[in-house]
Amino acid sequence: MEWIERLNDAVRYMEEHLTDEISYEQLGRIACCSSYHFQRMFAYMAGVPLSEYIRRRKMSLAAVDLKSGDAKVIDIAAKYGYRSPTAFNRAFQSVHGIAPSSVRNEGVSVKSFPPIAFQITVSGAAELSYRVEQKEAFRIVGLSRPLEPEIEKNFAVVPGLWQEAAMNGTVEKLAGMMDTAPMGILGVSVCNDEEQWKYFLAAASTKKDDSLEEYMVPSFTWAIFSGEGACPGAIQELERRIVTEWLPTSGYEYDNGPDIEVYLNPDPSDAKFEVWIPIRQKQAHKLL
């Protein structure tokens, strides 16, 4: 299947560039999506963040180099893109549990993480409720925070923003400002490769408030999935199922737009929500 083939093409690109700086943007181009969406897909499909997978592969090869040759640790560190022995030592110990200088000692064990290979498996016994809608551009207002290109570095950013907004009354203010669809408190990840990545906690509104930032969500076709349950776990599980069960066989692929979470009620312990992903009809693509 073409979608899985693209992921495997991206893995091959990583394998060919483990001693270079791996471009997340190029990985996205190979998979025909933004680098943000590629990282999300990879993490859900592989069960490990992209940066951690790359670290494990580099340290697997570094261990082989250390065991099989006389190269200095500092030279092997440089080979795999580490500018200081300290950073390399930290990465090596995080994977193998020992210092790189100990590898050549007799009886010392290291770990091997072979290249991943994706394939289709039969799953999805539980139903997924969704609809596909074309939406014109709409304006949102709210608070934003910049996001890092490696998405796992942002795990503390989003919860921190929600906590801040709940405590200072911003969530309540946004609830009173919403006057256009989608009618709910929004979590919007603006992460295409042509602009600064940001996360917005916002509402769709035509109203003005100088204390809030505004953003125009472009016109897209959206796949809109409905869910409910205790958050954030329930919405994270829905997003995982979208990527691993729905997207590979849907006939669609990610378009270069934001992801949107729509919270339809205020109770996080029994939330009702929607997940909006920008999509386009799947097309034939050539490897770049």
**What is the strand content?**
15-25%
Shape verdict: elongated
Pattern of helices and strands: HHHHHHEEHHEEEEHEEE
Radius of gyration from the CA trace?
Answer: 22 Å
Percentage of residues assigned to helices: 25-40%
Number of helices: 9
Report how far the terminal alpha carbons are from each other.
Answer: 18 Å
Give the biggest sheet.
9 strands, antiparallel
Structure commentary:
- This protein has 288 residues and is an alpha+beta fold.
- The protein has nine helices and nine strands.
- A hairpin with a 7-residue loop joins strand 3 (185-190) and strand 4.
- Helix 1 (2-16) packs antiparallel against helix 2 (24-31).
- The longest helix is centred in the first third of the chain and has 19 residues, at 50-68.
- The two termini are 18 Å apart.
- The relative contact order is 0.15.
Short description:
The chain is of the alpha+beta class and 288 residues long. The chain has 9 helices and 9 strands. It starts with a helix and ends in a 7-residue tail after the last strand.
In terms of topology, how is this protein built?
Elements: H1 2-16, H2 24-31, H3 35-46, H4 50-68, H5 73-79, H6 85-96, E1 130-135, E2 138-146, H7 157-167, H8 170-177, E3 185-190, E4 198-204, E5 213-217, E6 220-229, H9 233-246, E7 252-254, E8 259-263, E9 271-281
Antiparallel strand pairs: 1-6, 2-4, 2-5, 3-4, 3-8, 6-9, 7-9, 8-9
Helix pairs in contact: 1-2, 2-3, 4-6
